[in-house]
Specification:
This protein is 49% helix and 5% strand. By secondary structure, the protein is mainly alpha-helical. It has 2 domains: 112 residues, no CATH class; 173 residues, Intergrase catalytic core (hpI Integrase, Chain A), CATH 1.10.443.10. Strands 1-2-5 form a 3-stranded antiparallel β-sheet. A two-stranded antiparallel sheet has the order 3-4. Strand 1 and strand 2 form a beta hairpin. The longest helix has 22 residues. The protein is globular, with a radius of gyration of 26 Å.
């Protein structure tokens, strides 16, 4: 369907004589110029989008012949399943990911070759918030009491530090300080590549609770002579997709717990910290957030169920306080 979007595009006589290149001719230059600022995982993702989505449609068109209607039709076309028999459409989030490098390429070309950018008032699609399904404390206790021994320490750390998957899988012993009960987040592991943390706020020191300290002490006896805290027998870091498929989901099924993505361990820790009454600013720093905005937008709605707080705490506070006369104010 995508190829039909541009069949009727005829380069004008002026364009034939111009020095404005085709999309295909310019895109390699754009990638090489921007690669220096990208992480390896992002670079691979951009190349995949360009090769699978953008070049097949826009490759042979001169950059200034790509119009706003072409972009809108292209975006609509990629929302449909690309394979026969597949019912699920691409998510708005993924469609936005596809459109992002296209926007960058065309905006840069417009500046460089002095033509109006076709990305006029084409806003990213609205993304529905991902469902947050944290475990209850009882569910965490059940899971940790029954998970196989060689992954008990790993999941204890996951549940009680709010570390991201890439952070715990890339955790090296050099960043663990059990004398100070802290973990330093300085690196991550994405698709087997050591990379920098997600944001500047993600560089942080995580203060460790006692269960995490005990788990790391036990783990040091197992992998303390290796580079990575959690690794296989050869010392190589864990591959999260393999762990999810072979360990995580089978454990949930066996324990008859609802299937949830492993990332829910991070959400679980956040809600437990909030339920315990920890300072929101401290929680935000522990999680690698620059502000408390996400805590109040995403996590705080789970706190009433965890703490049974419904305003009664305030009632108890003022129960024996005399605020003066209870006579009706006749001035109202």
């Amino acid at each position: 369907m995508q190829q039909h979007l541009v069949e009727n595009v005829e380069p004008s006589t002026v364009n034939i004589m111009s020095n404005i290149p085709t999309f295909d001719a310019f895109v390699d230059e754009w990638v090489s110029e921007n690669r220096i600022q990208w992480k390896k995982s992002h670079y691979k993702n951009v190349l995949m989008i360009i090769e699978n989505y953008l070049v097949p449609v826009f490759g042979q068109i001169r950059l200034n012949d790509i119009t706003r209607p072409h972009l809108i039709k292209f975006r609509a076309s990629i929302s449909e399943p690309r394979r026969t028999g597949v019912k699920d459409k691409l998510s708005n989030d993924w469609i936005n990911h596809v459109m992002t490098p296209l926007r960058g390429i065309l905006n840069e070309a417009a500046l460089r070759f002095d033509f109006p950018t076709p990305f006029i008032n084409i806003k990213p699609l609205k993304i529905d918030k991902t469902a947050i399904e944290p475990f209850s404390l009882a569910e965490v206790q059940l899971f940790l009491s029954r998970i196989r021994d060689d992954f008990h320490n790993y999941y204890t750390v996951r549940f009680f530090t709010a570390m991201r998957t890439a952070e715990i899988d890339g955790l090296k012993w050099q960043f663990v300080n059990l004398d100070r009960n802290e973990i330093l987040i300085q690196e991550t592991l994405v698709d087997g590549n050591v990379e920098t943390p997600k944001t500047s706020a993600s560089y942080r020191s995580i203060q460790l609770s006692q269960p995490v300290v005990e788990a790391l002490k036990k783990q040091r006896k197992v992998t303390g002579n290796k580079t990575y805290v959690f690794c296989n027998a050869n010392g190589n870091p864990l591959e999260h997709r393999n762990v999810t498929k072979r360990i995580w989901y089978p454990a949930l099924d066996e324990m008859r717990l609802k299937r949830r993505r492993p990332y829910q361990t991070r959400h679980t820790c956040a809600t437990l910290w909030l339920a315990a009454g920890e300072n929101p600013e401290w929680i935000a720093k522990q999680m690698g957030h620059s502000t408390t905005k996400m805590l109040f937008e995403v996590y705080s709605r789970y706190v009433p169920n965890a703490t049974r707080q419904d305003g009664s705490a305030f009632d108890r506070l003022i129960e024996h306080v005399n605020f003066g006369s209870t006579q009706e104010n006749t001035d109202d």
